[in-house]
Amino acid sequence: MRVTMTVNDEHHEVDDVWEGESLLYVLRERMGLPGSKNACEQGECGSCTVYVDGVTGCACLIAAGQAQGHHIVTVEGLATEDGLHPVQEAFIEAGAVQCGFCTPGLLVQTDDLLRRDPEPSDAEIREALAGNLCRCTGYEKILDAVRLAASRMKPEPGTLS
Amino acid sequence: MTIPTEAPTEAPPESPAETPDSPPDNARGGVGESPQRPDATLKVTGEFAYGSDLWMDDMLWGVTLRSPHPYARIRNIDIGEALATAGVFAVLTHEDVPGNKTFGLEIADQPVLAIDTVRYQGEPVALVAADHPEIARQAAKKIKVDYDVLEPVTDARTALGHSTPDLHGELAEEVTELSREAAHLHPQGNLVRHLKVRVGDPTPSADVVVVGEYHVGMQDQAFLGPEAGLAVPDDVGGVDLYIATQWLHVDQRQICAALNLRPDQVRLSLAGVGGAFGGREDLSMHVHGCLLALHTRKPIKMVYNREESFFGHVHRHPATMRYEHGADRDGTLVYVKAEIYLDGGAYASSTPAVVGNAGTMGLGPYVVPHIHVDCYGVYTNNPPCGAMRGFGSVQAAFAYEAQMDKLAASLGMDPVELRIVNAMAEGSLAPTGQIIDSAAPVVELLERLRAMPLPPALDSSDLRHLPGGVSNTTHGEGVRRGVGYAVAYKNVAFSEGYDDYSTARVRLEVVGGAPQATVHTAAAEVGQGLVTVEQQICRTELGVDTVVVQPKDTQVGSGGSTSASRQTYVTGGAVQAACHKVRERLLALTQDYLHETLHDLRLEGGMVVSDTRGAVASIADVLGAKALEETLEWRHRKTEPIDPEKGQGFAHVQYAFAAHRAVVDVDVELGLVKVVELACTQDVGKAINPDAVVGQIQGGSTQGMGLALMEEIQISEGKIRNPSFTDYLIPTILDTPPMPIEVLEYADPHAPYGLRGVGEAPTISSGPAVMAAIRDACGLELTRVPVRPEHIIDSGDGRGSRGEPKRRQP
């Protein structure tokens, strides 16, 4: 079947998609966007977290056909021409990246958290990232990174976000 | 260096006021600093190419057909229908393996593809290549394998024909000749290795004796990036393999043997590695991908999914351990007897070395005058076990630290005091008879840990801080706090006489007017940050800012394994030594350039600097159009094999020491555990990259905690019952507590920069500390890890639900 969707503000049209293929497979293997990672294919690890119409979800649990006509944002869509997204910069600076396999999903989920809540408490960060497994860091530097990103993304007092 | 994290406050932890320090703009990024890792930007933009991301236009997908049975004879394999499937390019079996049909890290006992017998569930039997992964998977199901299913051997003691000793009985009699009662899974029998340590009086006596039997379940490395690689055939019978692995050259050696090709015909390059932790030290699809590529003359991509990954790599050995500790009334240890069974599963992998570690490190960092250890590595029909972070020491630490707490309780002593009384120090004798010849600050690690502030008392107003969390299982009733300590002791690098080396090539030249170093090693970067360390060493030794790290491949000599906490030590040592040779040549060139002889020159900030005269020339001017390149092999000091009867010898290069204090809240009515804080102190000799050191300690601590609380591959009749992340649990950010850390730096004079391997020690003591804290909270013996809720629930008859006697009333 043919599937069309918008990914990172670009129109994509792919043919010969099997009904059983996931959004993750189509992104990675048919669209040349391997940034979203396949670590469990069960929605347990969060490594394939993407935005679907502004809501985060695991691309491995979404059939490609379900994404028909929707707007997808992946880790490849976070940086702009002006440079890295503040969440990306914070993960680098805080040392939250080791093997990096969990990083794409965590970046998307952290961006989502900070859009909803610019000043999350540690407990709120932990709740928001509970669906993203990391095997390398023990999460401490991920918490550091989220706090750092939050401090930089916080709207200036008196301005409307 | 002290790195407080989420420092305790009166209120529950919230966002701290301070954010992590950024490096100053003028940071050069040398040894002792924490510069940005060179692959960081690629990793946050999604552009870093992991093994599973590799792709070629005309590639095919390879899949593996695996045995559903733990033990069976193969009567026949019929590939006809699978091969006839549209889209299928090849179906291969053991008959298509042109060279050695078996491989292995230490013993070549594992078939590339099953020949006439399968010895574990998941053993590879046949391969399929097709133009879509699903076509390949469907075709594999059409391969008809006729199995004669056999009764699996699933218990390590039974496999050796040993009787199971009573908990309160004497140790089993010393085994002089192995029983041949158990079915032989391999021609030489079911024993992989038996290590003995015999020191002092064989029949010692002591005022106080404690005995315990302990069990450790099978842990999985659970690296997030499953096994993946791309094999690309050349036009002349060779192959290029891009693979996520831990040791390119040991892979190459085994692939060449299986394919009957020369090393120049099998070229390996490291693909991006999504974590390793020991699980990539053995071959996975390496030979399979190459076989399919050579057969189809097309690139072959193989990627395991999570379920296949559980069958596709070795795990941590499960252990059954019986310990007897005897001590004087003042707590001084008199003797330890230990019997350790490590279930190696169907094939040897690195079991001999794991036995070496568990047997020689298995008493912990304590001075013991009289020692009697028997450590066995055993073949069974369980999944093969081999390397995982902590490598034999992890299992033993659960036992020896539980014994130390039990002994302290018997003596009425504080558990930390008992450890301090018996702690190793520099100059102590290890069980192998080696003198600990560099810092062993066990006492200081414990004292610093004990002095660290405790976290605030239980706050039951917020469910998120309670065991069970937002599941709303308690509002504080039935919740008891416990505190526990444990110490880790681990050999660094390869032991027992292994020729353990690394190769480094360093080049210095002028690029764009500025001096630039290029470093090339084959040492695998698996996430730990070796690439950063290589850059830092070049910057410090050559005084340049720009250091290019060449891709890791077999175009340079072996870097040895990324395991045993050894890469910063051994490959770091090789890079440093290669830099010194380059520097020597540059300084000679400087004499020519200046037409005078100076003896006080060093390299700094792109300049050749004299101690007395300051900067005398720029490196760029001295070099001109010349490039200086040096390649060398570097070895740590030699070790020797241990003698087979008494376990004595200079077996280990270096020791790493760490200690943990765990604070837990336990709901003793429901058996739920919340780890409140997991503090760690560790001596690292010299922190080459302080941020990376902390990252290793925190990550390693979390894996050890995971084994204590939740991580177990559950096996029944040789079959894995939980091969998924839904059923095999690893700690989430909610399970993982704040981890304050104090890092000590007592230089080891034998090691480059005085450094001490960092990666494994924290994985060893964190779990035992968590277990000690849970015992402190609930008062039960808890002799099995991972501990389960049903073990913790107090059944009210003075015994735990598994029948363990209560240690004391809390």
CATH top-level class of the domain at 440-492 and 654-792 in chain B: Alpha Beta
CATH class of the largest domain in chain A: Alpha Beta
Provide the residue-averaged pLDDT of chain B: 93
Order of helices and strands of chain A: EEHEEEHHHH
Largest interface comes to: A-B, 67 and 71 residues
**CATH topology grouping of the domain at 440-492 and 654-792 in chain B:** Aldehyde Oxidoreductase, domain 4
In CATH, what is the homologous superfamily of the domain at 440-492 and 654-792 in chain B? Aldehyde oxidase/xanthine dehydrogenase, molybdopterin binding domain
Mind telling me the CATH superfamily name of the largest domain in chain A?
Beta-grasp domain
Q: How would you characterize the overall build of this protein?
A:
The complex is a heterodimer of chains A (161) and B (810). The longest helix of chain A has 14 residues, at 103-116. A 5-stranded mixed β-sheet of chain A has the order 2-1-5-3-4, with helices on both faces. Helix content of chain A is 32%, strand content 13%. Chain A is of the alpha+beta class and 161 residues long. Chain A has 2 domains: 3-77, Ubiquitin-like (UB roll), CATH 3.10.20; 86-153, Orthogonal Bundle (DNA polymerase, domain 1), CATH 1.10.150.120. Chain A has helices spanning 23-30, 86-93, 103-116, 122-128, 140-153, and strands spanning 3-7, 10-14, 49-52, 55-58, 71-73. In chain A, a hairpin with a 2-residue loop joins strand 1 and strand 2 (10-14). The mean pLDDT of chain A is 96. Chain A is built from 5 helices and 5 strands. The model of chain B is unreliable at 1-27, 166-181 and 801-805 (pLDDT under 50). Among the domains of chain B are: 440-492 and 654-792, Aldehyde oxidase/xanthine dehydrogenase, molybdopterin binding domain (Aldehyde Oxidoreductase, domain 4), CATH 3.30.365; 501-635, Aldehyde oxidase/xanthine dehydrogenase, molybdopterin binding domain (Aldehyde Oxidoreductase, domain 4, 2-Layer Sandwich), CATH 3.30.365. In chain B, helix 5 (248-259) links the parallel strand 13 (239-243) and strand 14. With 810 residues, chain B is of the alpha+beta class. Chain B has a 7-stranded mixed β-sheet, with helices on both faces. Chain B has a 6-stranded mixed β-sheet with strand order 10-18-17-16-11-32. The two termini of chain B are 37 Å apart. In chain B, 58% of the residues are buried. Classes of the chains: A alpha+beta (161), B alpha+beta (810). The interface between A and B is large, with 67 and 71 residues.
